[in-house]
Amino acid sequence: WALVIMLASFLAVNVYAYRKQRFIDYGLIAVNCVFFLFSMQMARATLFFPLIWLFSMEYVGEKTDGDKFGRNIAPMAAAAALLISGVCLWNTVTMNTYDSWFGSNIDRFVPVNEASYVRDHDLMPPLFNDYLSGGYILWALYPEYKAFIDPRHRPYEKTGVWDDYIGLRMHPEPENLRRFTEKYPFRTGLIHHVKYGDLVGLFLSSPDWRLLYIGPVAAVFVSASDYGSVSGVSAEDIGVERFADMDNPSILMSLFRIYALINLDDARQIMHIYRSNVSRSYTLRDTDLSMMSGL
Q1: 127-129, strands of its sheet edge to edge
Q2: Spatial CB neighbours of 115, under 8 Å, sequence gap ≥ 6
């Protein structure tokens, strides 16, 4: 709605400019419309449209009313800045689930611990990974492990990998997984369970894969044929006790869903951790707890 208001206000200023000064800049209007459409389609494009809108408004206003425009718009701009700042602050307090400042807590949204587990236990490549985890895997595990896919996206369209991956994502079914692993003979899997819980559930249900490790972000699997040869495997690697201090609601909800497929008692323990650790100011707290209590 904020983007729509911005575009509407820009068009309104242009209509005013044309009626008063017969001034119109078709190129500027086109640029704003194009970046508005980009912003509506792709979240990262919203970084650009507000800046273009801001300078466009100032430019058209000055062409119309000179310095008078700036003086007239200042009170409204100040009010809008306060309103937007208040909304951002409120959402940060009530909806934010990732308290990451200057790179802190990075292991709560990228698979830092999980990638270390793969490397430290010398799990066998090739490695299957999800789309989002691929970027970190490129940085942390290459060249010992090559990422199957990563957020660059375009290179994988040319090879057919993207279509195969999306096919599995859209239809996470046992037969599709079987065909997928026949084409790509992975021996290890690292899957972001917060974002791709359906894929984790698919691997858990498959007789061809064994769960080795559950981290705050991802789950690590190994092929059933390699399971017996993995050294240093411990029951603690999939235990819930490691999450006793976790206060991130998104992570805890994801862990709850995973443990509900493995052991109901462990899932209930995650629910108790959620109730104890997650801030009462979090908007979805009661909804999440209600869902978990219905298990």
Answers
A1: 127-129, 188-192, 218-223, 209-214
A2: 136, 137, 140, 141, 190
* Cβ-based neighbours of 294, under 8 Å, separated by 6 or more: none
Q: What is the DSSP letter of 219?
A: E
Per-residue pLDDT tens for 119-174?
Answer: 999 999 999 999 999 999 999 999 999 999 999 888 898 899 999 999 999 999 99
Report cis status (omega within 30 of 0) of the bond before 143: yes
How, if at all, do strands 188-192 and 127-129 pair?
parallel
Backbone torsions φ then ψ of 184, nearest 5 degrees: -120, 100
Q: In the chain, which residues have pLDDT < 50?
A: none
Dist CA 245 CA 255 (whole Å): 13
What single-letter amino acid sits at 240? Answer: V
Residue 158: count of CB within 10 angstroms of its CB: 8
